[in-house]
Design brief:
CATH class of the largest domain: Alpha Beta
Number of domains: 2
Order of helices and strands: HHEEEEEEEEHEEEHEHEEHEHEEH
CATH architecture of the largest domain: 3-Layer(aba) Sandwich
Strand order of the largest sheet: 1-2-12-3-13-16-14-15
């Protein structure tokens, strides 16, 4: 990963983008892709699409990731000055306690901490809270003081930036799924370098974490011949990992190509053949009842769009310390470009019945 692509990834990860509040991150993404796209456009909700025009008779393929991250939102402020949060997406309250957070208020960021009763004072096991049980301490003297600084509806993210654990291992919050939007942008750039005959769309969707809403909008409007959605997938190479609940995917062994359910068999085969031809190592992930990603929205949009998910192996998903191997991420971008370059060899993307 060179300095410019590494800086782009870092910028994406350190720009707060909770679902419903993605504008700042989308702005950074569109600035980057504008350098090599023929056109960049956004819609009313902030979905962003970059286009590299291909041959008129060649297929159109979309490479997609979602821009939003999970987080919290100010639900109420009590008279003692404590902020009571609600959830944005699949927040895990068991890892929220004791964390530093940033409330993104209209007048600027407000720092706070998610309170936790000291171990000395606890009785019994209270390690399974609900989001409604959490409170955020912003150091306010009372409710009036707190309400002057934050307001109901302000989004909240966990504080802290990117940590490079090694030269290739990256940790932080929101890797789910700014790594996907990074890969989509880089896939477009690299497809352009290969002079792919296909028209290639790089897509950065909004509100995936709250129901894949952005992909529904984009899929209806864009209607490409095929979509490859990039998201994170569970890497199970750590102590206590529940290996019986997912395929054996690990860090550093390449992106995981989904098989089953949403994943279109022709697109899946095309992606795997492109990987083999390009010498890209991939893993295979069984997804028999859906992918839980934007692919599940794309594949039924506009009638039916052949769709495929590629997962970047990730440890500790939906925590503030998600971990990836950037070698897997680089390989994902290369795989997207390789697929786009040979898409015309596999059309029409249709099951032979």
């Amino acid at each position: 990963m060179d300095d410019s692509t590494r800086a782009f990834l870092t910028d994406l990860l350190e720009t707060p983008s909770p679902a419903g509040f993605e504008a700042a991150g989308q702005r950074r993404w569109t600035e980057y892709v504008a350098a090599f796209a023929d056109e960049v456009r956004t819609d009313a909700y902030g979905n962003a699409v970059a286009v590299r025009e291909g041959d008129p008779d060649a297929p159109a393929v979309a490479l997609a990731g979602h821009a939003d991250e999970i987080g919290l939102i100010v639900r109420s402020i009590d008279d003692d000055g404590f902020v009571r949060p609600g959830g944005i997406g699949g927040i895990d309250p068991t890892v929220a306690r004791g964390q530093r957070v940033t409330i993104h208020a209209d007048d600027g960021p407000v720092e706070g901490v998610v309170g936790r009763t000291a171990i000395h004072l606890r009785e019994g096991d209270d390690d399974a809270p609900e989001v409604a049980d959490l409170w955020i301490d912003v150091g306010a003297a009372d409710g009036e003081d707190a309400r002057e600084r934050v307001a109901v509806g302000d989004p909240i993210t966990f504080s802290g930036g990117v940590s490079w654990l090694t030269e290739t291992r990256l940790a932080g919050r929101g890797l789910d799924n700014r790594v996907g939007t990074w890969a989509a942008a880089e896939g477009l750039r690299r497809a352009a370098e290969r002079d792919a005959s296909a028209t290639v769309y790089a897509v950065s969707t909004v509100q995936e974490e709250v129901g894949r809403q952005g992909a529904k909008m984009v899929g209806f409007d864009l209607d490409p011949d095929a979509v490859v959605a990039v998201d994170v997938g569970h890497a199970l190479d750590y102590p206590t990992a529940p290996r019986g609940k997912a395929s054996d995917v690990e860090l550093g062994a390449g992106p995981a190509v989904g098989r089953g359910s949403t994943n279109h068999p022709v697109v899946c085969r095309a992606v795997r053949e492109a990987a083999a031809d390009a010498g890209i190592e991939v893993q295979v992930e069984a997804l028999g009842t859906g992918t839980g990603t934007d692919a599940d929205a794309f594949f039924t949009a506009a009638g039916a769009i052949p769709s495929q998910v590629i997962s970047v192996p990730t440890r500790y998903m939906h925590t503030p310390v998600e971990v990836i191997d950037v070698g897997d991420l680089e390989a994902t971008a290369e795989l997207l470009a390789a697929f786009a370059a040979v898409a015309d060899e596999h059309e029409p993307f249709a099951v032979d019945v």
